[in-house]
Amino acid sequence: MTDSQTSAAQPWYRDLAVYREARVWQIFGFGIISGFPWVLIGSMLSAWLQEEGLSRGSIGLFGIVFVAYSINALWSPLVDRFRLPLLHRWLGARRSWIVLCLSGLALATLFMSTLDVQNNLYWIAVAAVAISFFSATQDIAIDAFRIESFAANESRLQSAGAAMATAGWWTGYSGLGAIPFYLVDGVTYSWQDAYWVLLGVLAVQLLFVIMVAESKRYHAIKQVRVQGFRWWTWVQQTFVAPVVEFFTRNGWQLATALLTFVFVFKLGEAFLGRMSIVFYKEIGFTNDQIATYSKVITWWVTIVFAVLGSIVNIRIGIVRGLLIGGAAMAASNLLFAWIALVGADTDLLLAAVLIDGFTSAWSTVAFVAFISLLCNRTFTASQYALLASLGNLGRTLVSSYSGFVVDWLDGNWSLFFILTSVMVIPGLLILLALRKRLGELEADYHRHQEAD
């Protein structure tokens, strides 16, 4: 009997037992580390640039700095195979890379705190690119750490891990992301001062990584060692083999369809997210209101529904979870179109962030579990980074033009949010078309787990 069948045969509340596992809470901590850099170059930077008078189009273009998340698959094999001198012996394969990247993030954040928008816009962009690069690189190691923390036949723990990774990411992005907005809402702190405060958060994260034990039970399968200086063999094993294995295992038609779905599924959410802070400030919400509603409330809603979403996905399956979550995500975007028509109504904003937090958590947990399922453990970091970076492509290059879209619509925010809802439909259609094949894939996955 598979994990999903076993789970369906017992009361739902017993599924919560997996959250007593220490490994799951470690994943939560790493999720916080993964989500926090998006504050530094996402919502916080957008608000700073908006207050300094930059146009919507210029603020949207700053989203290009996130391109590192879309191309980190290019250097993910190096994270998989290259062992950092000294740090690897002390911390292990995954944590050594995370510590290196956190150190780089701290230096780039320190540099950002010394700049001002009017005179140093170019260097702010450079610092943002550096933060994006270090963050995208540490995500490779964090995702591999999460997947390798559980055995192949621990699907319930993998699902719980996906939920806690999502909850942790939103804790880092929304929970900790509220700090700079509360600080700057008065007259005591500037945005540069807020970056100084957030350096302390990075220091705490660094201590957490050093203290956590790296899993020694479920590491990726060792690859064949290359003898001598056979550089072409090394290139094949490092960069070519993960891609070839993915297409060989799934067949080129299913593999292409899967990659297309991963690319388009989050496009609407990415467009909304890139312009949300600009929208809130233009419509009349204060920094304090943005921190409370968009950050703190979204944070707790996402954590609760990430956990509940993982339980539901265990019972109904990942594919159905994606369908339900995607459809709800498209519908929730329409609430922001309503706010655009009504104005700065905090009650309506509360309803919007509650529903959006629920749908975002549900769909994200299913999405993370889905692409984790597609990975071969021989190439854990490489294949997950390939799929995750493809999904992030819409969140970077495509969504970077969201500000120009708002300008093209003559500032019609309501129509813009309706457009973000429509953008979810292609992904749902692909999922419906592949539903039978994906159901078979999920069933095969559970059968292999049972065999293990």
Describe the protein.
The longest helix is centred in the first third of the chain and has 32 residues, at about 115-150. The protein contains 23 helices and no strands. The protein is globular, with a radius of gyration of 21 Å. α9 (about 115-150) packs antiparallel against α19 (about 380-400), α13 (about 230-250) crosses α14 (about 250-265) and α17 packs antiparallel against α22 (about 425-435). The model is unreliable at about 1-10 and about 220-230 (pLDDT under 50). The protein has helices at about 5-10, 20-35, 35-50, 55-60, 65-70, 75-80, 85-90, 95-110, 115-150, 155-175, 180-185, 190-210, 230-250, 250-265, 265-285, 285-315, 320-340, 345-375, 380-400, 400-410, 415-420, 425-435, 435-450. It is mainly α. It has one domain: MFS general substrate transporter like domains (Growth Hormone, Chain: A, Up-down Bundle).
Topology:
Blueprint: H1 3-8, H2 22-35, H3 37-51, H4 56-61, H5 67-71, H6 76-81, H7 87-91, H8 93-112, H9 117-148, H10 155-175, H11 178-184, H12 191-211, H13 231-250, H14 252-264, H15 267-283, H16 287-316, H17 318-342, H18 346-373, H19 380-398, H20 402-408, H21 413-422, H22 425-433, H23 435-451
Question: Which features would summarize this protein structure in a list?
Answer:
disordered N terminus; MFS_trans_sf; 452 residues; transmembrane helix; Growth Hormone, Chain: A; AmpG_permease/AT-1; 0% strand; 78% helix; 23 helices; transmembrane; globular
Q: If you compute it from the alpha carbons, what radius of gyration comes out, rounded to the nearest whole angstrom?
A: 21 Å
**CATH fold category name:** Growth Hormone, Chain: A
What is the terminal separation in angstroms?
12 Å
Question: Fraction of residues in helices?
Answer: over 70%
